[in-house]
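fwd from M.: "can u put these together and see what the complex looks like"

so here's what she sent:
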Amino acid sequence: MEKVVNRTLALKKLHALLLLHFLGFMLIWLKCNEVSAQSQSDNQKILSTFIPETGVSLEQLSQGEVGQGTILYYRSDVGMDKPSLVVKLKKATGAKVAVGEVYQAVSGTDYVEIRIQENTIVILNNTGPSITLTSLDGWWVKNNRPEYNLNIQINGPMYAMWGAGYEPTLGFTGWASEVKIAEASVYIEVRDPENKGVPLWDWRSLLPAFPRSGYLRTNYAERECNTTLELNLGITSLWPYVAEAGGYEQPVSKLLPPIVVDWNHGKITHFSELVTARNQNCSYTLYSLDRLQKEQLNQTNFESPFAFYDLSGEGNGHPNLILRTQHFPANDPWSIGDIDAQIQNPYPKDMETIRYSWRNVIGDLKWDFKIEVMGFQKYNSNTPIAGGLIHVDAPNYQTFPHWVVGQSWPLVTFIGNESSQDLSSEGIYDWSPREADLKYYFGWDNALNQKVFTTINQGLRGEYRLGENIQPFLYISAVDRKLHLLNAEAGVWSIDNKLELNYTRLKKDGYIDQWVYRTKGDQNLNIISQLNVDYNYLIYSSNTEIIIRQAFVKPSLFETLPPTNHDEWAALGAKLEAKKPQFEPQDFKAMLHQFEGPELAITNARLQDYRLVEDKGFRFVLKLLPGYQLTGPNLVSLEGLAPGDYAVEYNYTSAIFKVTPLTPANLTASISSSNLTELSKSLLTIQIENTGLKDASSGLLELSATSPSGKNSIIITESVNILSGEPYLTKVSWAANEPGKWILELSLKQSDHKLQPLASRTLLVASAGQTRGKNLLTDSLFDGQLLILSGGLLTAGILAVVGLLLYSRSYPPGTPKDITVEDVPPEEKEPSDG
Amino acid sequence: MVKYSERNQKWLWLLPLLYLVIIALYSFIRYGGNWADTDSSTLARAIRPVIEQGKITPADNKDIYPNGFAYQSITAFLVNITGVDVATFQQVIYLLIAPLIVLPIWLLFNEILGDLRAAMFSTMLLLLQPEFLFVILRGSHEKFTRTLLVLCLYFLVRSLKVIGQPRPLAIYVLLFYLSAFAMATYNNFLSSSFVLSVTLSLGFGLLLGLSRKPLRQASFAVLPRLSYASLICVVLVFVSLFYVYEPAQIVLGTLKNGVQKVAALFLDVQTATDYTNAYANINIGWISLPVYLLLSSASFLAILFSIIIWFRQGWGWLVKGKPITNQNEWLLWLFYTAFATQSFFSIGFDRIGLIGNLQNRILPSFTMFAIIMIGFQLVRWRTRPIRAFWRYLAIPLVLCLAIFAPLKASNEPFLSNKWVFYSSAELAALNWADNNLTNTYIWSDFDERLSTAFEVNYNSSKNRNTFDIYDPKAATRTFFISDTTRLRSLRMQQPLPVPADANQLYDNGFGQLYRLRPLTPYQE
C-alpha cells in the first residue's frame, strides 16, 4: 500500500513538473511572439485642473512668473484622483526658461498614480516624465499665442517622428515599438522667432541607434509661405500643448496641440508635427536616415529635400508643385532599397530620383503632370536650415526646382493625368524611374532592358526617356496637341480598361512620330488604327484603309521646361489651354487633317511593319486586298498592281516611294570565334543577314553546343528581329568546359514555332591542362611536408589499431563477473504491484 | 564499478589523446596554419570588436555573433594576456588544444560504460567520426560546447549514482547546471537543443515506464532528476536567451515563422552565415560519390550499428519484457532516442524547406550518442571471446577509418572540392586590393576560401570593399585569379569568370587582379 501511495505521489510530482515544463515553453513561445492586445473605448469628456504648489496660479505660470504647479488631466467619468495625464510646470527663481514635465500612466495602469503631500503632487511608481518641454522664453502663452520656442525631450515609445505608427489595438509600430520605456527616443527643437504662435521650423532627431534599421533619424520641416491657420489651444488654453484628440499630421488650415493621448489608458500616443510638411501651401522638409548635427555641413540621404510649392500664390492649404527626392550619396549603406535591382549593393555613385508633380490650378491634392528624373548628381550645396543652426548639402528651397530642371538626367519619365481622379499629398507615384533597369545605369549590366513602362494606370498617359542624358524639356505636339516629354522614346495612354494609345519615337529628332490605337493585350494583333508622321508625309492606317498625305509637319507647337515659378506655371497653363485639342485622342484622321496637302487614300488595304530604314527613309509592308481602290493623286506608284503584299520604301534623297513585291525572309548566318581554350571565356561572333524583303520579326535565336562527349547545352537564347537589308550582329561570351571538337548550331524559332537552322560550326577547343597533383601539393602543402604528413596519418592509424587490439586482446576470460552495476537492483528485486 | 586489476589500464586514455594530438598536428602541418572556413572567420570578426570595445556586446557592430558570447569573451581574454593575435588563435592555438576534449569524453565513457578498455576504444571510435573531428578542430565555439555537453552528461550520470548522498549530489547537480549554463553562453541553440533532448528523454522514459512494468522502476529512478534538470535548464536557457545576451533574440527576430523559431531553439539548426552551404551537392563537394561514401563510412557505420543496437535493446526491454540491468544504458538509450527524434525532425524540416536558411547541426551530437550505444555493445562483447576472424577484419577497417577521418575533417584538397587552404601570396594580393580599391566588389574565388582567409587575418575591408564569391554579382567588375583558383577551375570544371580582354591591375607571380573593360557610358 505504501508503495502505491509513493508511486501516486511520484506520479503527481511528475505531472506537476510536466506542467511547469509546459508553462516554461509557453513563456518562451510568448516571448518570441510578443503580441499586445489593447482596446480603446470611445473618448470621454476630458477635464483639467491645476494644483498650485507655490501659490502661483496657472495663468501666472503660463505668462512666465516664477513658481510651480501641476495640471491634472482626467476623464469626467473617472475623476481627478485618477488622472490620465499629469503635467508639472516649473520656473525657478532667476531662470530664463520654464519647464513642463508630462507624465503618463505606467505600464499596467490606466492612470497616473499620485499623492498630494503638503500641496505638492507626488507622482508614484513612475519612470520619469515622458515628455519634457522647455520654453526658451520662459512663458507658455502670451497674448493668446502659444510659445513655440521649445526644446522637447521625448522618452519612451511615442509616435513623434515618421517611421513610427500607432494602432489602438496593436499599440506602437515601427521604431516606436522598439523603444523601451523611459528610453530617450526623440529630441525636438521648434522655433517661432517672431512669436507669432505658429512655429517656423520643427527639427526632430531619433535618438536610439537602431544600427540595423533604416529608420528616419531626422525629420525637418520649415514653413516657406503663409497658410491661413486656425489655432486650437487644446484642453486648457493656459498650457496649450495637450490636444483632446489628434494624430501625427496636422490637419489642413489648423494647428492642434501636439500631445495626443489615449485618455482611456492614460497613454500618450503622439507628439504631433508642429510644422506640417504637406498640409500647407509651401514647406521645405528633410527626411534623412542619418542624424543631422549642428555646426557642420551634413550629408543628407533619402527624402532630402521634400519640397512643397504654391505656384498659384492663391493656395488654401495644399501645394500645387511637389518635389519629392530620394537621394543617396555614393555607397551609402542605407541605399539598399530594391534588393532585386541592386542585388544587395548600395548605389555605387551619388544617385537620386526626383518626382516633380504639378497642378495647373490651385492645389487640391489632384495632379496634372509629373516628370520624374533619375541621375547621378552630387549634392554640393551648403544650405542653412533651422535658423542657421544646421547646414546640409541638399539644394535649398528657392533654387531646388531650377536645380532639377536645369540639369541633364539620363532617365526621365513623364505622366500626364488625362482623367484620373486620384488624390495624393505626395504627387503622382506612377512610373518611378526606379522601376527601370537600374543595373544598367549603375554599370552592372552591359545592355539596357527596354521592356519597361509598358502599362500604366487607367486615365494616365506616360512617356519615358531611357537613353539620353539631357534636360527634361517638354513640348506640345502639333499632331495630338498634348504635352509630351521631348526625346521620349515611347509611351502609353490607358484610355479605359480595354483601349490604349501607344506612342513611339522612331526618328531621332526628339518628337513622338507614331501613334497606335489598340485594344489592350498583344502588341501586334490588336491594332485598331495607326498614325505615322514623317517629315513630309502623314500615313494613317486601319484594318480597311490607308491614307497617305503629303504635308510638312513642324512637330512641336511649344517647348518648355517644367514650371519653376508662378510666371512659367501661368504661361504653360495658358499655352495648354490655347492649344487644347478639339478631337478625341484616338481620332487619328482628325489629327492628319490638321495639315494641308495632297492625299492618296487606299481602301481594302492594310499597312504592316512600318519602320525607318536607318537614316535613309522609311518603309512598310502594303497588303493590297482584292478589290482595293485608290483615290487621290499618285503619291505612290500603285496603279495596276495585282492584289498581294508589297514592300514600300521611301527614300529621303530621291524623295520617291519604291514599291516591290514582298519576298519572304531569307536568312544566312555565320559563327566565328578566336582560338578557344577549355574553361576560358572567349567571344563568339554571330552575324545574320536577311536578303529577303520581309522582316523576320519576333524570332527566338538559339545557339546550342554539343560537347566532344556528346552533351548538349544551350549557350544563348534571345529575342531578335532580323530586318530586311540590315545585318544583325551579336557577340556571345562562352567557355567550353571540356577540350576537343565542339559543334555549335544556330537556329531561329519564329512566331509559328518552327525551328529554322541557320548555321552550324565545328570548333576545336584546346586543353587547359590537367589538375596536376604536383601543383596542388605545391599550393596546399606547408613547405612540402609530404613525408611528415603521411607518417602522421599512418601513426594515427596504427594508434587506432593498437586501441582495437588493446580492447579486444585481453578480454577477461570467460565471465562478466568483473562488471557490476550498482544502481539497478537485480532482476529478482523487480517490484511487483501491491 | 569495474574492477580490473591491471594497473596499466588507468593510462588507457592516453591512447585516444595521442591519436587526437597527431591529428591536430597533422591538420596544422597540412596547411601550415593557412586555412580558414566560414565559422572561423565569423567568430574572428566577432572576437575583434569584443577586444576593441571591451564589451561582450559591442555597440553598433554588424559582426556581433548572436548565438552566444563566451567564445569571443574567453578568446579576447586569452588574446589580451598572451599578446597572440586572433588569427593565430583561430588557426593554430585552438587547433592544437582540441585534443583536450579527450579527457571529458574519457571521463564520461568510463563512467557510463564502466569498462576502461571499452571506454578507451569508444573514445577512439568517436574520434574516428569525421563530423565530430571537423567541429572540434576548427576555430569555433564547438570544441567548448561539445566539451560542455559531455560534461553535462557526465555530471548527470554521476548525480544519479549519488542520489541519497546529499553532499556529492549537491556538488554534481551544481556542476551540471553550471555546465549547462556555460553551454548556453557559448551557443544558445545548441544548449536549447540539449534541453529538449533531456525533456524528450523524460517524456519517453515516462511513457515507457508507465506502459511497461519491467521498465517502471528504472524509469522512475531517473525521471525526477531528469525533470528537474529539464525544468531548470529551460529556465537557464530562457534567462540566457532573453536577459543575459540579448543579441540572441536577433536571430529569433530574423526567423520568419514559428516553425523556424521552434527549429532554431530545439532542433539544433542555426542561421546560415553568409557563405555557408552545408548541403552543397555531394558530387560538387567531393571528387566523386564513392570517395565521399568512403570518407564518411565511419559515420554511416556508427549510425547503422547504433540503430541496430538501439533497436535490439529496445526490443528486448519493450517487447520481450527483459528487465533493465544497467541504469546508465537505459538513460543513454533514452537520450539516443531523443537525439534521433530531433535529428529526424530537423532533417525532415530541412528537406521539406520549413526552416529556410537554417542549417542542421545536430549530427555531431547524434554521432556521440551513437558511439555510446556502440560502447555498451563493446562492453557486452568483452564478456565473451571475440573470434580472431572478426579481430583481423577489424584491424584494416579501423586503420582505414583512422586515416579517412582526418582527411575528411581537414577537407583534403586531393579528395575534396571544398578547399580551405590559401597561400600567403593570395592573402597579400587581396590585402593589396583592399588597400588600393574602395567600394569595390572583388570576385575572389568560387567559394569563401579566400574571403574567409582575409577575414580571419584582416577582419573586414578597410575601404568598404566586398569579396564576391560563387557566381559573380552583376556589380562585380574586379576579379582576383590565382594559380590555385585556376587549379580549382579545372577541378570543378567551372570556367574562370574573366574574359580574355580584361585589364590586368596587379600581378604578384601567383595571383592577378583583373578589371572588366567598360561597355557602357555608366561603367568605369
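replying to her w this: Chain B touches chain A through 117 residues (CB under 8 Å).
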